[in-house]
Design goal:
six-stranded mixed beta sheet; 2 domains; Rossmann fold; 14 helices; Nucleotidyltransferase, domain 5; alpha/beta; 31% helix
């Protein structure tokens, strides 16, 4: 039985580390199949009473029934499980699973929820359609010791009752203690070989011809919600508190030259993945102040590697306020302090779209792999990942107006640090069109 790593806690639901499991994802995420397998395993272990429902009264064939039935006929064959039209039983230990349909407008259906008090596992399928009144009744009914709630939903909107009822923070992928909350999309599991070629070909066809539909149905993004984002597939999986500065490794220092604020990133790069461990964010400074701060934080007496300098190519040119270019100031200071250094710059800056495409491909590649990770201390870089957007209807990055800055000073920090890091990413990992 193949079980993807993000779903593994389901197999141990009887250990009671979590009382609620929430899975969201688009088509091909295999969330329903994993839930069905895990529940059947529980029904084989001990006597369990399981209820499966959706918001509306639907034909059994439209629910998880088909998935359960196929598993019983294949992977769980001859294990004592049997099915009828509306029920699945384990005749060896008395486990029972039944299906329900509920309608918010039907008081009788809402009252029927009260009969769920004796269940052990409750599965809510297509939970994005369940209304808040139903959730309120449901959660009050099942909150007894040992009951496991499993929720499966697609993000058809940014404002869903299921997220409100369960206190789910999708933007940060966080949930209350006792709730296991993850997102899975087909890109991250396609390399396992469990998705058919037909599915993958069709998904690619939709991606090419109906990109909005592809994002909604396959990448779990409500229509339009991701279109305006510059960094489209950023998630908490790109944030890693275990990243460490290693003085024996090269520091990849990438800069964008701006006075207020001056923003740059510090990373390790192993040829495949980027690990950003720090950011330099300084207000009302000149380039000399920036390099002095670098020296203060990472003194040459402790650093054994090479400083790999990256960033805005225009920094090579002399400014009117100085007889030296920005990079000359940096190099002169590093040389004086005893650092080894190397310049990694293009003759001219690449098109903005090229930087954005290269950056997004490292955040989440077409193969489902993430190759860019950031330490949580880099708060302004993470702020940019979540908030940097295009102007409506354009491919131009939106810049804050003076009026917006007056209302929200944080917007001052939008853009420059993304520029800094994306220069480096594009230099080492450009998107090569074939």
């Amino acid at each position: 039985m193949i079980f993807y790593k993000k779903y593994l806690p389901l197999l141990h639901m009887d250990k009671h580390k979590y009382d609620t499991f929430v899975f969201t994802g688009g088509r091909g995420s295999l969330k329903t199949g994993h839930v069905c397998r895990a529940v059947l395993c529980q029904m084989l272990k001990a006597k369990k009473r399981v209820a499966v429902f959706r918001q509306t009264k639907v034909a059994t064939e439209e629910s998880l029934y088909i998935e359960f039935r196929e598993l019983i006929n294949t992977e769980f064959k001859n294990r004592g499980l049997e099915y009828t039209r509306n029920c699945i039983r384990n005749h060896k230990n008395g486990s029972e699973l039944f299906f329900m349909g509920l309608q918010d407008r039907n008081q009788e259906s809402r009252e029927s929820l009260k009969g769920l008090a004796q269940i052990d596992i409750l599965i809510v399928d297509e939970a994005q359609t369940v209304s808040l009144p139903i959730w309120e009744i449901l959660l009050k009914t099942i909150r007894k010791e040992g009951v496991v709630l499993i929720v499966i939903y697609n993000r058809i909107d940014d404002d869903l009752p299921v997220e409100q009822a369960l206190f789910l923070d999708y933007e940060n992928m966080s949930a209350p203690k006792g709730t296991y909350f993850v997102e899975v999309n087909f890109l991250e599991i396609s390399h396992l070989g469990v998705l058919s070629k037909k599915f993958l070909n069709y998904a690619n066809l939709i991606k090419e011809n109906k990109p909005d539909e592809f994002e909604r149905d396959y990448l779990n993004k409500p229509k339009g919600s991701n279109v305006a984002k510059v960094v489209k597939y950023w998630s908490n999986e790109n944030i890693n508190p275990d990243i460490r500065y290693c003085p024996d490794l090269d520091i990849f220092w990438s800069l964008d030259f701006n006075v207020n604020p001056s923003m740059s990133t510090l990373a390790h790069y192993d040829g495949k993945k980027f690990f950003v461990f720090d950011e330099l964010v300084l207000n009302n400074v000149i380039t000399q102040d920036v390099v002095d701060e670098f020296v203060r934080r990472y003194p040459s007496s402790e650093f054994k590697g090479t400083v790999q300098i990256c960033g805005d190519a225009s920094g090579k040119y002399r400014k009117t306020q100085s007889k030296y270019s920005d990079y000359a100031i940096i190099i002169n200071t590093l040389a004086k302090e005893g650092y080894r250094y190397n310049l990694n710059l293009r003759p001219f800056n690449p098109p903005v779209a090229a930087r954005i495409n290269a950056f997004n491909n490292q955040v989440l590649g077409n193969d489902g792999e993430r190759r860019l990770f950031v330490h949580p201390r880099c708060k302004w870089l993470i702020y940019n990942m979540k908030n940097l957007r295009y102007k409506e209807g354009t491919n131009i990055i939106d810049e804050a107006t003076p009026a917006q800055l007056a209302d929200d000073n944080a917007k001052l920090y939008l853009g420059h640090i993304f520029d800094a890091l994306s220069y480096m990413v594009e230099f080492f990992k450009p998107v090569i069109r074939t």
